[in-house]
Design goal:
alpha/beta, 10 helices, four-stranded parallel sheet, extended
């Protein structure tokens, strides 16, 4: 009776004077439990090699399981008709191409249905090869097309080319390549901002930003646009928002700025801007637009805004204008900002 009472009390609560196996002066209870965890999980065998205890998670005894029935197993609820799919594509294509409308909850919307792969990149093979030669029972294997009729004519062509070969006219030989010229001396600032390391810094900004401000020079907006980055944003990360900032509008006439804003607004939202700490233009509109994008990302406490653009377009000046003080170094030569910077607005 006393033994049963003692065992019953141990099962509920371990007294303080009861030591665990392996607990001593050098190892406390917590350390012994950790060592047993590392040693445990292995299979145990007797002296004859017979399995006594299987390893953890390797037992072949499976308890009976019961699968909960669900009605969606018996009906495919993700089927859409061809007519409804065409209407969906037409309506959504008009919304997506509008630069002033944002598509929310992209993960819940089957945007892959918007792109008809059968219409894009279709090649009419029957225009080059007949159906019988391509798909029929007498389909022929495609062979390289040569400008000769037979083997004899091919041998004759090769022989004549070897006889008429002149090593002095071969431009692929190193001896015939022109080397009597030198590169023109250029100042160091002409090569600033053109290294491959800049692309790594550029993609750091793109990957870590929710809204991207593409800074353009009002004197040459098309020349300062980076089509490669715009294509990357459209194809790889369409959930990021792109905004054109037409900077240095004080250097061009007003009607030029108005026309460029009208042209660029067809693709993405465009703002005219003049970077200045004391007398700026377009600062209020930019802050208001960023607040609207903040509402779209209500799940985040704050959003990240990245500024990209060609050298000397005024990226650092725009940051100084928004902060109303000098937080980024500016210079009249390109390549002043060599690494990406993180500035907090609040």
């Amino acid at each position: 009776m006393g033994v049963q009472k003692k065992d019953t009390s141990r099962a509920g609560k371990v007294p303080g004077n009861l030591k665990l196996k392996g607990e001593n002066f050098y190892r406390d209870r917590k350390k012994v439990q950790y060592v047993n965890m590392l040693r445990g999980g292995r299979a145990k065998y007797d002296s004859k090699g017979n399995l006594v205890k299987a390893a953890a998670f390797q037992s072949h005894d499976a308890a009976p399981a019961r699968i909960e029935p669900n009605r969606k197993w018996f009906g495919n609820t993700r089927v859409i008709g061809q007519k409804a799919l065409e209407e969906f594509r037409e309506q959504m294509a008009a919304k997506i191409n509008d630069p002033y409308q944002v598509l929310l909850r992209r993960s819940k919307l089957p945007t892959s249905l918007l792109h008809d792969n059968t219409r894009i990149g279709r090649v009419n093979m029957l225009q080059t090869e007949t159906f019988s030669d391509t798909f029929g029972p007498k389909a022929q294997r495609k062979r390289p097309k040569l400008n000769v009729e037979g083997y004899e004519q091919l041998v004759q062509t090769i022989t004549s080319s070897n006889e008429n070969y002149d090593h002095k006219k071969d431009a692929n030989l190193l001896a015939n390549q022109q080397s009597e010229f030198t590169d023109a001396t250029r100042d160091w600032y002409f090569g600033a901002g053109t290294s491959k390391r800049i692309w790594n810094e550029l993609y750091k900004v793109v990957d870590s930003s929710d809204v991207i401000l593409h800074v353009l020079d009002a004197r040459d907006p098309e020349g300062t646009r980076c089509r490669h980055v715009e294509k990357y944003l459209k194809t790889e990360v369409p959930h990021k928002h792109l905004i054109y900032i037409l900077n240095k509008v004080d250097l061009v006439p007003t009607w030029v700025t108005a026309r460029w804003v009208k042209v660029l607004s067809r693709e993405h939202p465009t703002l005219a801007f003049h970077a200045s700490i004391t007398k700026s233009f377009g600062k209020g509109s930019l802050i208001q637009l960023l607040r609207q994008f903040t509402r779209l990302h209500a799940d985040k406490r704050q959003i990240s805004v990245g500024l990209i653009g060609y050298p000397n377009t005024g990226k650092s000046s725009i940051i100084n204008t928004l902060r109303q003080k000098k937080v980024c170094n500016v210079a009249p030569v390109p390549g002043e900002t060599k690494v990406w910077q993180y500035i907090t607005m609040t």
